[in-house]
Amino acid sequence: MTAEIIDGKAFATRIRGQVTQHVDRLKTGHGVTPGLAVVLVGEDPASQVYVRSKNKQTVEVGMNSYEHRLDRDTEESTLLALIDQLNADPAVHGILVQMPLPDHMDSASVINAIDPAKDVDGFHISNVGLLATGQKSMVPCTPLGCLMMLRDTLGNLSGLDAVVLGRSNIVGKPMAQLLLGESCTVTIAHSRTRDLAEVVKRADIVVAAVGRPEMVPGDWIKPGATVIDVGINRMERDGKTRLIGDVDFQSVQEVAGAVTPVPGGVGPMTIACLLANTVTACCRANGLPEPEGLTA
Ligand code: NDP
Known about the structure:
Layout: E1 4-5, H1 8-30, E2 35-41, H2 45-60, E3 64-70, H3 76-88, E4 94-97, H4 107-113, H5 125-132, H6 141-154, E5 161-165, H7 172-181, E6 185-189, H8 196-201, E7 205-208, E8 226-229, E9 233-237, E10 240-244, H9 249-253, E11 258-259, H10 266-285
Parallel strand pairs: 1-11, 2-3, 2-4, 5-6, 5-7, 7-8, 8-11
Antiparallel strand pairs: 9-10
Helix pairs in contact: 1-10, 2-10, 6-7, 6-10
Bound molecules: NADPH dihydro-nicotinamide-adenine-dinucleotide phosphate (NDP).
NADPH dihydro-nicotinamide-adenine-dinucleotide phosphate is lined by residues 142, 165-168, 170-172, 189-193, 196, 209-212, 230-233, 266-267, 270.
């Protein structure tokens, strides 16, 4: 079997197209322009690339982008004051504080200072609780993108066996909640899981989010399973820095029914879902119907 390759880049382009249409409707029909504020503290090179890309795509879909850059040494109280200001600003519908923050800041306090209605990353404790209890929330962008790709590939997910590799707050746990919401039978595996290969082999759906290059080989995969590779590992290969997933793409491709590549799979979907969440937040703030197909 040669797996279908799930083209996250093309899918993300489709999502951005839908977002652009909604933004147009909000502007022309309701006089509202969705706005996303992105806050970057420090000069971490990877974070700078992400923030640049987020701002560029925000503008491309017709939304307002507000970029705030703070020095690495900024006091946490200054960042919290900026968040208060953005919470109160009616032109800002989504707020994203780029992680990681410098060591002297407490990420949880910073995230929980964001108005949950504007928390387009879906990391605020209220949104975590709402998702866990099956209520309307802001859903973290990476798992939301994975869910969209799974629905598009498989249709109804009800009753399928899903294994999520990784239990982080930003990927593994919300991914498992979303799959549970789709009525999958969900197993969360992690570094202490015994017989990992056997656990993975039972799954119709595998979502790998461990941060270990090519950890999942083809012989762990049930024939025909759908494999979503969240991993982004920067490695030197053939004298170049390359992005490598958590899945051994070559061997998995021979067994799986469908698989996402790295790069070009989950990565592009994450920013597309950030834009989708910002439109959703804008609609909710204005008491307007939410865009269909852009939420969980
Ligand atoms: P974390 O480091 O926070 O979590 C990794 C998880 O993997 C932990 O739960 C850990 O288990 C588990 N794990 C580590 N080693 C093993 C192992 N040998 N066997 C089984 N489980 C293991 O990572 P994140 O969730 O933040 O990210 C995971 C990957 O996804 C990274 O490569 C990251 O770069 C990528 N990523 C990609 C995004 C995208 O947009 N495409 C967005 C976010 C992340 P334990 O809890 O027991 O330690």
